[in-house]
Amino acid sequence: MGLEFEHPLGLAAGFDKGEVVAPGLLALGFSHLEIGTMACCAGSGIS
């Protein structure tokens, strides 16, 4: 895909669904974040 990261430590989607604490998470040392959620169909527990 051609993506290069500073190091392999990242944070998976679902932790910061509203992109509220992303700057703080990057400051903690994560090299990449997955922001928000994505689902093909609505389901129980998905908001």
Descriptive account of the structure:
This protein is mostly loops. It has a domain at 9-37. Helices cover 13% and strands 9% of the residues. It has one helix and two strands; from the N terminus they run βαβ. The protein has one helix at residues 22-27, and strands at residues 10-11, 32-33. It has a two-stranded parallel sheet. β1 (10-11), α1 and β2 (32-33) form a beta-alpha-beta unit. It starts with 9 loop residues before the first strand and ends in a 14-residue tail after the last strand. The mean pLDDT is 78.
Q: Which SSEs are present, and which pair or pack?
A:
Elements: E1 10-11, H1 22-27, E2 32-33
Parallel strand pairs: 1-2
